[in-house]
Amino acid sequence: GQVVYSIAEETERGAPVGNVAKDLGIEAATLAARKFRMLSGSSKQYFTINASTGALSVNEPIDREQLCELKSACLLNYELVLENPLELYRMEFKVLDINDNSPIFPLSEYLIKMPEFLSPGTRFTLPNAQDLDEGTNSVQNYTLSSDEHFHLEMQTRGDGSKYPELVLKKTLDREQQATHRLVLTAKDGGDPPKSGNVSVIVTVLDTNDNAPEFEHSVYRASILENSPSGTLVVQVHATDLDEGPNGEIRYSFSNTTSADLQRMFSVHPHTGEVTVNGVLAVQRPLLELLVEARDNGAFGMSSTAKLLVEITDVNNHGPEITVTSLSSPIPEDAVPGTVIALLSILDKDPGENGKIACQIPDNLPFQLKPSLENYYSLVTSGFLDRELISEYNITITATDLGSPPITTQKTLCVQISDVNDNPPVFSADNLDVFVEENNPLGAFLYQVSASDRDTGENGRVSYTLRNSTVAGSPLASLLSVSLANGSIYAKRAFDFEQLKSFYFQVEAKDNGLPTLSAAITVNVYISDQNDNAPAILYPTSQNGSVAVEVVPRLADEDYLVTKVVADDEDNAQNAWLSYHLTYSSDSTLFRLSLHTGELRTTRSMRSTDFLKHKVVVVVQDHGDPPLSSTVTVGILLADTLPQVLPDFDDNGQPPPLLNATNIYLIASLACVSFVFTAFLLFFAVVRL
User: Fold this and answer.
1) How far is CA 117 from CA 169, 179, 262, 302, in A?
2) Per the database record, which ranges form the Cadherin domain (predicted)?
3) Phi, psi dihedrals of residue 674, rounded to the nearest 5°
C-alpha cells in the first residue's frame, strides 16, 4: 500500500517520476473508472497522474528550501484513493537538494572596532553565512583576503556548530593604518561550488581592550508552547574585565538571529533576561538564537552566546476527522466486512498529545478498523435489516492521549437500501367464504390482502389464481381476481344442488427480483336458496289420473290409509317438509300427520259411509318464500280390489271454482235463454 519516489528539486514541469499503476500493481485502464484521486495536505499539486497510462509526472517545480525550510529531510506525502472497490495507497516523495543557493551573509558589510593595544591572538567573531541547501551543498569553509595583521580560524561551539573567527596576528597601529578592509568568503561544497562575500571593515580604536565574556557559550532552555507573553525563558550573564563604562554590558540579539525569532522573544538590555514576547507560532521543536553582549566603552566590544530554546508541546489541538469517502445508501444484504467509509483522523500535536484513540458505539453493526497511517475504515460487522432499521447515525469519537485529553466527534448518516428479502405474507393460511347460490355474474365474493415489508417495487404485491379445476371445470371459468387489490369475483352463478363447496388458492407475488410469493387457500361454501319445490315420490299418478288407495270396508280407527313421501333438493330449512290436508270429501273420516305424511282414519268405517272418497294433500317446505306441491289421493272402501277402478272425478270433487271462464259461460247461457224466450213471446204475439 506504499511506494517511495525520489526527485530532485527544481525538476521541470512534465518530467517523468514513475508509473503509479505499474509500481502499485494497478491496471492503468481502470484508473479513470475507479475515480482515482490524489490527496495531500499541501496547497499545491506538485505531481499529476495520467489517467490512461498511470504515468506520474511533475506538475509544478519544487523549491525544496521554500517547502521544507531548514529540515534535513524534505518529504511530501500523498494518498491515492480508488473506488469500486475502495482502496488507499500512500505515496512518499523525497525531495533531493541541488546546489541552487549561494551562501549569503546577513549583512552586506560587517564593522569591527578594535583597540590599538590589543595583543596578537585576540579573536573576533565573524558572521556565519547561511546557505539554504543541505549537506555538502551547504557552507563548507571560509576564506579571508590576505592581510598581514589578520588571519582566519574556525572554532567549534559546545553543540558542535562551527563559526569563523578573525584572529589578530600583528599588533595594530592606528597612526599607521586606522582602517583595514577585508573580504570574508564563504564557499559551499556543491559541484560546481558557489560562494558569497561580505566586507569586513576593521576600525582601530584606542582603549577598551577587553570584550565581554559569557558564562556559557551555549544556553539551553525549555518552555511550553502556550506560554504567555512575559514568561522568563533564561537569564544570560556576561562579564567584562574593563572598568567603568568599558565594563558595563548591554544585551541584545545578534543581527544573525532571524527577525521572526526576535519578534517572539525579547532580551532585557541590563539583566540579560530572555522572555516570551508574543505567540510561539512555530512548528520546529528547537529554536536557535544568538545573544550579543556589548560593553559601553567608547568603542564597544562584544561577544555572542547561542541560546537553544526547546518548545515543549501542550495538548492544544483536538483530533480532526475528515471523511475521505462515504458509500450511502448501502444494500441491506451487504456482507460483514463491507467498507462503508474511509476516514482521515489527524492531531497536529506531536508525541503522546498527537496519538489518537477512535471508537464508535458498541450497539451498532459497524466497526472502525485502522488502515494506513492516520486512516481508518468503517466496515460492517454484522448483518443489516432495513425492515428493522433503515438509517444509522454513526457517531465517531476521536480522543487524543494528551492531558487533559481532547475529544472530537463526527456523525455519519448511513442509509440502508432495500433488497427483496421478504415475501408477501397473508394474515392466515386459509379463509372461508360464503356465497349464496344463484348469484349474479360478476358478484364480489371477498378481498384477500397480503403485506410485504419491503419497499418500492419489492413491496408492491399483485394477485393471481393458481391453476386448478373445480368439478371438472377450469377455475378461471368460475372466478377472477383483481391483480392490484386481490378482490375475488364470480364469473358465473353457482348452483347449490350441483356444487356445495370447493377451494382454490390465491397467489400473492411481489415485483422484486427475484420474485417472492405466498399463497392462501380460500374455501368457498355455497349457501342454499329455496329454489326447488318439494317433489312427491309417493303416491304417484300416471297420465293425470288420481292415485287410488283401497281401504277395507269396515276398517278400524287409526287405520293407515297411505303415506305421502316427498323430497326437496334444497338444504336445511328449505328442505324441511310439512304435510297439510287441504281437501277431504269427508272431513270427519281422515286425518294427516303434519311431519310424517301418514294418512289415517279418524274413526272406524260404517256401512253407511260412501264407498268413494277423495283427499288433496299439500307438501310444503320452510323456505322464504315457501314452495309446495299437491297430490290428490282417491280412497276406495272395498274388501277386495275391483278389476276396474271407479272414476273419482265425479264424486267427492270439490265444487269447481267460480273463475272467469265459468262466469263467461253462465253469462252466455243466460243471454241465449233470454233471447230464445223473447223470440217465443214475439212469435206468440204475432200468431195472436
Assistant:
1) 13, 15, 35, 16
2) 6-105, 106-214, 215-321, 322-426, 427-536, 561-648
3) -65, -40
Confidence of residue 569 (pLDDT cuts 50, 70, 90): confident
Pick the closest to residue 126 from 182, 204, 206 (CA basis).
Answer: 182
Query: What element of type H or E holds 454?
Result: none
Q: Within a 10 A sphere around the Cβ of 326, how many other Cβ atoms? A: 14
Concatenated DSSP letters for 49-77? E-TTT-EEEESS---HHHHHTT-SS-EEE
Question: Cβ distance 211 to 266 under 8 Å?
Answer: no
Whole-angstrom Cα distance, residue 550 to residue 251? Answer: 162
Taking residue 85's Cβ as centre, other Cβ atoms within 10 Å add up to 8
Please say if the pLDDT value at position 82 is more than 90: no
Ranges in the chain annotated CATH 2.60.40.60: 2-96, 109-205, 213-312, 320-392, 425-527, 535-637
**CATH architecture of the domain formed by 320-392:** Sandwich (2.60)
> Mapped to the 3 state alphabet, what secondary structure does 354-406 carry?
HCEEEECCCCCCEEEEECCCCEEEEEECCCCCCCCCCEEEEEEEEEECCCCCC
pLDDT digits (tens, 9 = 90+) for 409-452: 999 999 999 898 889 999 999 999 999 888 899 899 999 999 99
Sheet containing strand 391-400, edge to edge, reads: 330-331, 407-417, 391-400, 356-359
Q: Can you tell me which residue has the cell 304417484? A: 540
CA distance 590 to 616: 11
Q: Which helix (H) or strand (E) holds 223?
A: strand 218-224
- Residue 16 CA to residue 233 CA, distance in Å, equals 49
pLDDT per position as a tens digit, 625-637? 898 989 989 888 8
Q: CA 103 to CA 9: how far, in whole Å? A: 18
pLDDT in tens, 320-367: 888 988 888 999 888 998 999 999 998 887 777 888 889 999 889 999
Does the structural domain 535-637 have CATH classification 2.60.40.60?
Answer: yes
A 10 A CB-CB count for 512 gives 20
Number of neighbouring beta carbons within 10 Å of residue 348: 13
Q: What is the mean pLDDT of residues 218-223?
A: 92
Q: Within 13 Å, how many C-alpha atoms sit on residue 447's CB side? A: 5
For the domain covering 425-527, report its CATH number.
2.60.40.60
Fold classified for 109-205: Immunoglobulin-like (2.60.40)
514: buried, middle or exposed (CB in 10 Å: 19+, 13-18, 0-12)?
exposed
List C-alpha distances in Å: 417 to 328, 332, 333. 9, 6, 9
Cell triple for 682: 214475439
Give, in order, the Cα–Cα distances in Å from 458 to each of 322, 329, 520.
Answer: 36, 17, 20
Burial 190-199 (b: 16+ CB within 10 A, else e): beeebbbbbe
Is the pTM above the cut of 0.70? no
The strand pair at 330-331 and 407-417 is best described as parallel
Res. 651: pLDDT tops 50: no
Average pLDDT, the chain: 86
- Give the span between the Cα atoms of 3 and 186, in whole angstroms: 39
Q: How far apart are CA 94 and CA 67, in angstroms?
A: 12
CATH topology of domain 213-312: Immunoglobulin-like (2.60.40)
- Which H/E stretch holds residue 260? helix 259-264
Task: Compute the average pLDDT of residues 81-92.
Answer: 86
Q: What's the distance, CA 35 to chain centroid? A: 21
Q: Which of helix, strand or coil describes residue 652? A: coil
Looking at domain 2-96, its CATH architecture is Sandwich (2.60)
